[in-house]
Every structure is written in C-alpha cells, then in structure tokens.
Amino acid sequence: MGFPEIYLNQKAYRYFNILCLYQNDMWKFFVAFLVWRNKDNFIKGEFNDSFSNEFESNLLELLKAITIKFLNNKSNANEIKDLVFKMNVDLNQNKDFSYSKFLPETFFNDYCSGIKIDAKKVKYLLYLYAHLYDDFSSDIKNYKLEVEHILPKTWQNTNFDEWNETSHSQYLEQIGNKILLNKLTNIKCANNFFSLKQEKYKESQNSQEVRDLGNREDKIWSKADIEARNKAIEQALKNFINK
C-alpha cells in the first residue's frame, strides 16, 4: 500500500493511523480491497476527489465496524476477518454495509471499574478518543505514545486533597484517569501531582485534549474529574458509532 500519507486526505489518514493501533491486522484485507478497486489511480498516480472520498468514507465505516467489535469483546482475528470479508462483499455489490451497531448497556463498565485493562486496548481507545475530542481536526502521531496516569500511579501519603490510599486504588486504573503522552513527556511527568504535570501537558505537540488539561484553571484532579471523563469518553464512543 506504499505510504498512505501520500494518497490519503487528512481525515482518511487519521482513520488509518487509528486502525494501525488495533489489536490485529485483519482490517488490512478491507484496505487492500479498496486499493484494488482503485488500482488505476495508483498506476497513474492520480488521486482525485472521487478517490479521496471513497477512501475517507469507507475507512470511517471500517473504523466504526471494528470498534464495535472491540467494544463487544469480539475483536479476535477470526471475528475481524469475517467482518471485513463481509464488508468487502457489500462494497463490491455497492450495498450499504450491514454490520451491527449494537452496543450493550454495559459495554464500557470494565473501563470505569478500576480493574486493570490490557494497555494495548486502553491505548487504542484513548487514541480514538483523542481524535473524537477535536473531531479528527489534527494529526496525532501513533508511535512512541504511552499511557499516562493523571492521578499518579504510586500512592504518596502527603497532602493529597480528597484522596486517600483506598480511593487512589479505586480510581487509578479507570480510563478517565488515563491519557496518551509521548515517551519523553511521560517521563518528565513522572509521579508528580496534577498541578505540576499541567506544565508538561501544555507542551503536548499532538493532542488538543492534553493541552486543554494543561491550560485549565483548576489545578486539582478529583474523583469527579475522573468520573466526568469516563462519561465523556463513553458518550463520544456512542456518538461516533451512531452518527
């Protein structure tokens, strides 16, 4: 497929970058079919508006479809392979895609429960949410990103606002307490309090959400903040799937 940044428009390229963080590569069969359908464009090196629109709209549908599988805990290689081959058939027959948009009421519970979730899964959701946060309006590099705990990972028995060791344990691993930072910035944040981390968040080159966290007036990171962000991520995912 060469270098997608050469032939994809901005939004399509951002969809592609999110897909690259998925837990398996079976989605690439759909992209390969898109390339085959547009092989004449690649041969001629002509990527007109029609080409751009086809890739943008179809990569968006692919991203929605595999995210639904992800949120339904059905994202193994066989599930995604079956999904993309069915999508290939629909696309080849010029039909609307027939994948299910069903999400159970409890689809997000584990991410808000405080149990530790596989970092690769959390990274995928946070990377998708970072794009949903600003409606895919900016590029966010998908490499050298690490999961940062806004509330520090290590409990410090000092002046910690409303926190104690028990509540720290309950809220630490909730997805609302996690963002993505590049490795260097993550190291600089270390185990600091929120007010000190904000100075580093302001410098984020990628994510508008991280910069907004850095620039907000409130210098305290509270239980209510984590709960509100849990809900914001959940609602953004619902809106994305259903729009």
Structural features, described:
There is one protein chain. This protein is mainly α and 243 residues long. It has two domains: 89 residues, no CATH class; 134 residues, no CATH class. Helices cover 57% and strands 4% of the residues. It is built from 13 helices and two strands. The chain has a two-stranded antiparallel sheet with strand order 1-2. The longest helix is centred in the first third of the chain and has 23 residues. It is globular and about 65 Å long. The model has no long low-confidence stretch (mean pLDDT 91).
Secondary structure topology:
Blueprint: H1 4-7, H2 10-19, H3 28-37, H4 39-44, H5 49-71, H6 77-92, H7 109-112, H8 119-133, E1 145-149, H9 165-171, E2 178-182, H10 183-189, H11 194-201, H12 208-215, H13 223-242
Antiparallel strand pairs: 1-2
Helix pairs in contact: 2-5, 5-6, 8-13, 11-12
Q: What is the molecular shape? A: globular
Q: What topology, given as strand order, has the largest sheet?
A: 1-2
Main sheet makeup: 2 strands, antiparallel
Write down the domain tally.
2
Tell me how many strands there are: 2
Number of helices: 13
Low-confidence parts lasting 5 or more residues at pLDDT below 50? Answer: none
Radius of gyration: 20 Å
Portion in beta strands: under 5%
Which structural class should the secondary elements be placed in?
Answer: mainly alpha
Helix content, binned percent: 55-70%
One letter per element, helices H and strands E, the order comes to HHHHHHHHEHEHHHH
Could you report the average pLDDT, rounded to the nearest whole number? 91
Cα-to-Cα separation, first versus last residue: 29 Å
